[in-house]
């Protein structure tokens, strides 16, 4: 239910943001048709990454030309065909793709209501290191590991941990009561979408109740901590920049 009397759990500040599903306003994106697009994280708020939620009607499509931007896409609901440089796969809920900079990608034949989260950013090449190629994956095929040995916080790393990649995208699943073991403060930026469950996210000096459908941006060095609450596990998908020197 929309929050009443002008109240919202959302907050957009200079170094972190929380946007709930009730705050969403669609925008149009060149190359995407028959879909709503909500840009939840972007350079317009100070981020280096763009995080976009696409929701397709049946008959919707996307065709995104090659550029210096790389795209990671994760299917949250439904199914669709995704092609990268002519290589085509059907992706269902939990399926994902990585389209490198310099390649084009497209989506067709979505089931009505298919939802994708995209993380997009300009690729930073590393001299002498091969840039990554296109990739398709499925979360059920990715082994999880207890985060820092804690079985209540399970981490799945969706992209190969190779120096050619300048972004990582991971899934975190917490049992109710599970939490990040300490308050993280790090140079890496995050874009994040809550996939299920609920909990409390500490962002800098504020504590926010969060639940499935919420999106979060954390600037570099944003103090962060999470505890899962409720009766079902809390899961989130998140982006972080990796493998590049600060200077
Ligand atoms: O990978 C991470 O930095 C992760 N532990 N951060 C987070 O979940 N907020
Ligand atoms: Mn972190």
How many helical stretches? Answer: 0
- Helix/strand structural class: mainly beta
Element-by-element helix/strand order:
EEEEEEEEEEEEEEEEEEEE
Helical amount: under 10%
Question: At the third CATH level, what is the topology name of the largest domain?
Answer: Jelly Rolls
Low-confidence blocks of residues: none
Count of discrete domains: 2
Radius of gyration: 17 Å
Secondary-structure arrangement, i.e. CATH architecture of the largest domain: Sandwich
The overall pLDDT average reads 97
Name the CATH class of the largest domain: Mainly Beta
Question: How much β-strand is present in the residues?
Answer: over 45%
Question: Can you offer a commentary on this structure?
Answer:
By secondary structure, this protein is mainly beta. It folds into two domains: 22-139, Sandwich (Jelly Rolls), CATH 2.60.120; 143-241, Sandwich (Jelly Rolls). Helix content is 0%, strand content 52%. The strands form three sheets. Strands 3, 4, 5, 6, 7, 8, 9, 10 and 11 form a nine-stranded antiparallel β-sheet that branches. Strands 1-2-18-15-20-14-13-12 form an eight-stranded antiparallel β-sheet, with no helix packed on it. It is globular, with a radius of gyration of 17 Å. The N and C termini lie far apart (46 Å). (2S)-amino(carbamoylamino)ethanoic acid is lined by residues 172, 180, 184, 190, 224, 238, 240.
């Amino acid at each position: 239910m929309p929050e009443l009397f002008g109240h919202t759990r959302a907050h957009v500040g200079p170094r972190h943001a929380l946007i709930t599903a009730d705050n969403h306003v669609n925008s149009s994106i060149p190359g995407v048709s028959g879909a709503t697009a909500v840009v939840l994280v972007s350079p317009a708020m100070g981020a280096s990454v763009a995080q976009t939620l696409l929701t397709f009607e049946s008959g919707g499509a996307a065709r995104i030309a090659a550029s210096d931007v790389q795209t990671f896409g994760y299917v949250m609901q439904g199914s669709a065909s995704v092609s990268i440089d002519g290589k085509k796969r059907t992706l269902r809920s939990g399926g994902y793709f990585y389209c490198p900079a310099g390649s084009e990608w497209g989506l067709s034949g979505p089931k009505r209501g298919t939802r994708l989260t995209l993380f997009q950013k300009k690729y930073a090449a590393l001299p002498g290191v091969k840039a990554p190629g296109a990739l398709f994956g499925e979360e059920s095929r990715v082994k999880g590991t207890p985060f820092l040995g804690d079985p209540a916080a399970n981490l799945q790393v969706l992209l190969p941990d190779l120096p050619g990649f300048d972004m990582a995208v991971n899934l975190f699943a917490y049992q109710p009561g599970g939490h990040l073991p300490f308050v993280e403060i790090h140079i890496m930026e995050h874009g994040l979408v809550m996939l299920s469950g609920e909990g409390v996210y500490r962002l800098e000096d504020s504590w926010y109740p969060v639940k499935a459908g919420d999106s979060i941006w954390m600037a570099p060095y944003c103090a962060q901590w999470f505890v899962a609450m409720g009766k079902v596990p809390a899961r989130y998908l998140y982006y972080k920049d990796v493998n590049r020197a600060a200077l």
